[in-house]
Design a protein that fits this description.
About 80% of the residues lie in helices and about 0% in strands. The two termini are about 15 Å apart. The protein is elongated. It has about 120 residues and is mainly α.
């Protein structure tokens, strides 16, 4: 990954993580209410990461890449069910967890593109 690509990828991922934290924090007391909203953040993030690596991705391809990282997404669901419904602490926990999952997902996708130049 070039330095310019790394800078663009970092900006894309961090922006998506901040948005995910906000969504998860505000919708914490409604179980799984943020799932659709988080997907609406993650899909464009993956498409933009693909663009940075000169790949044209459709929404369905981006969604497939996200699903392939389902292990990281399961931790978020567990934290929401266990703690998310507590006002205050649940909001903070869900926000931090969502940001962490989106960061991990974004960097995993970036690494995939970086180490698999002929993929997708």
């Amino acid at each position: 990954m070039t330095k310019n690509q790394e800078t663009e990828v970092a900006a894309t991922i961090h922006s998506a993580a901040v948005a995910a934290a906000a969504v998860a924090g505000f919708t914490s007391q409604i179980p799984l209410a943020d799932s659709v909203l988080l997907s609406a953040i993650e899909i464009p993030m993956v498409i933009n990461i693909g663009r940075i690596f000169d790949r044209e991705l459709s929404s369905s391809t981006a969604w497939s890449l996200i699903i392939s990282q389902v292990g990281t997404l399961s931790g978020r669901a567990i934290s929401q069910v266990a703690i998310g419904w507590f006002p205050g602490v649940g909001n903070i926990t869900n926000a931090v967890t969502a940001a962490g999952v989106v960061e991990a997902l974004g960097w995993a996708i970036a690494d995939y593109f970086d180490f698999n130049p002929e993929s997708v």
